[in-house]
Amino acid sequence: MFSVALGPARLHFALVTSIPIMTEGWFDENYWALCDDEKEAQQLTAMYGISDYLPDHLIVGLRGWDDFILCNRESQHFTIPTVPLDKQYLEPFDFPAWPMRLEADKKLAGKIKWYVTPVVFGGDPNAEDNMTWLAPEKHAEFVRWWNDLYRQENAKGKQG
Question: Whole-prediction pTM value?
């Protein structure tokens, strides 16, 4: 059972056996993956453990594989790198004013680009040997692991 904290209320739902399927495709030179509804956003938020890092936020999409698009309780949108999920990196975000017609790309559907060593840990985003493609559930696992490491390293730095 996962729970997502949203202010004073807590939403509880069972772990789903299937991964939410986001609408994906190219738009304006970026690859986007967007949630179709709030239920899907809640499932992804739980899968990625966002409430552990940024309470009161839901994942509503991915932009260009590197950045989550989040929404807070006031319906404000933000982008943040998948690593680190640290509130200092939240950037206000506005969706385009015109309709987004995502151009599907069968080669990329269901895959998320991942830097083997995330940029914040010194990984080179341009090195081919630092890039791989992951299924969403594996991506969530890696996002959580690297963010936990980031949090631990930050805590050590503040203590020492």
Answer: 0.84
